[in-house]
């Protein structure tokens, strides 16, 4: 960390919101003032806290999961942020591991699981360097929302998914029509059987299902 005072603990000033997923709702806490948190993070040389927002792709992925029976499945979320999709997966009966490379995101993910009285695990893992996640596999379902905003992420996810998924496994990747998402899907179709569903409520967001 570069010079300057450490940013305040974001758990000291939070807001709770009710998030709809399918026919149910969840209570999700996030930092109250995102712009102020971004300013504080920037002052000490840290990246903008994009993890601290509920993005449309994450909500679309949560809706997709809300319509599925996941009892007994091992589910891994990459780049979870506030972990709304993981909350839904846990509510649907999955054994969930929500991961993020930002410590504060992992703290909020764990709190959101507890707040909704759901069982699940949150872990500090940069999924782009995910050997520990491979070692814990294979996974029945790997989920990720809006993680393809960098070319490095596209390449990393293409390398990683075949190593994470079991033979009958599935990946669900939600993306808001980013250029990286289009590049990812073009390459993924050479390795996986792909089905795509456009989200009816959120313009530009699609949820892609990938199977071996």
Describe this structure in words.
- There is one protein chain.
- Mean pLDDT is 93; it is low at 1-5.
- This protein is an alpha/beta fold.
- Helix content is 33%, strand content 29%.
- Helix 4 (103-115) links the parallel strand 4 and strand 5.
- The N and C termini lie far apart (42 Å).
- Helix 2 (56-66) runs parallel beside helix 3 and helix 6 packs parallel to helix 7.
- It contains seven helices and nine strands, in the order E-E-H-H-E-H-E-H-E-H-E-H-E-H-E-E.
- The longest helix is centred in the last third of the chain and has 14 residues, at 151-164.
- The chain has one domain (51-211): 3-Layer(aba) Sandwich (Rossmann fold), CATH 3.40.50.
- The chain has helices at 34-43, 56-66, 84-91, 103-115, 131-135, 151-164, 179-188, and strands spanning 14-21, 24-31, 74-78, 95-100, 121-124, 139-145, 165-175, 193-198, 206-211.
Briefly say what this structure is.
This protein has 212 residues and is of the alpha/beta class. It is 33% helix and 29% strand. The strands form 2 sheets. Strands 5-4-3-6-7-9-8 form a 7-stranded mixed beta sheet, sandwiched between helices. Strands 1-2 form a two-stranded antiparallel sheet.
Q: Mind sketching the topology for me?
A:
Elements: E1 14-21, E2 24-31, H1 34-43, H2 56-66, E3 74-78, H3 84-91, E4 95-100, H4 103-115, E5 121-124, H5 131-135, E6 139-145, H6 151-164, E7 165-175, H7 179-188, E8 193-198, E9 206-211
Parallel strand pairs: 3-4, 3-6, 4-5, 6-7
Antiparallel strand pairs: 1-2, 7-9, 8-9
Helix pairs in contact: 2-3, 6-7
